[in-house]
Design a protein that fits this description.
By secondary structure, this protein is an alpha/beta fold. The chain has eight helices and six strands; from the N terminus they run αβαβααβαβαβαβα. It has a six-stranded parallel β-sheet. Strand 1, helix 2 and strand 2 form a beta-alpha-beta unit. About 4% of the residues have low confidence.
Amino acid sequence: PVGHMGKLLQKYRNEMGGKMKWIMLACPNPNAPGSELDGFKRGIEEEGADMMYVHGDPGYALIKQGKIDLFRRAIDFIKDCGVPAGVSAHTLEVIDACEKAGLNIDFYLKTFHTANYASAPRAGDPGSSASNRNDGAYDNSWCRDPKEVIEYMKALKKPWIAFKVMAAGAIPPRDGFHHAFTNGADFVLAGMFDWQIEEDVK
C-alpha cells in the first residue's frame, strides 16, 4: 500500500495541481534475494517519487563489504524507470567508490557543515577519531572533511545536494546555508520545524 507520505503527495498533486517534486531514498537489501530492490520499485511505482537515491549510511556497509554491484543494480533500476538516480553519503569514501566503479549517477548528496559550533568534536574528544559516518562524540557532527568535500565535489562536475548543513541545529540557518552555497553545493536539504520555514526560505 502507498505510504502516508505518498498519500499526502498524491493529494497535493490531485487537489492543488502542485509542481512540488519528491526525492526519495531507499537502500538495496542484500538479505532479500530476488527482492533486493523492492524499496526502489515501491518508491517509484507506488509512492510517485520524482527522483530516487541510494541511502548512503546503510549503503556504506555494502561498500565496505565490496557489494558495489548492489549500488549499480539500484542505480540502473532507477534510471530504467526514467527517474534521475543519486547516492547519498556521510563520507567521501562512498562517492569515490561509486565514481571508480563508473556508476551512471545523476547527482549526489553529501553531509556538509563547518566545525564552527560549540559542540563540534575537538582533538582528543571521545569518538574524535574517524569512523564510518564521520561522527564525533555528539550526535550533530557529520562532516569532518569540509575542505576535502569542497575540493572533491568541485572536481566531480556533478550536481550535489548538501545535507546536515546546520549540524542538527547547532549552526544558524543563515550560516549553514551560506557555507553550503558559497562552497559548491547546488542545493541544500534542510530539516526544519514548521515555525522555521519562513526564515529558512528567506
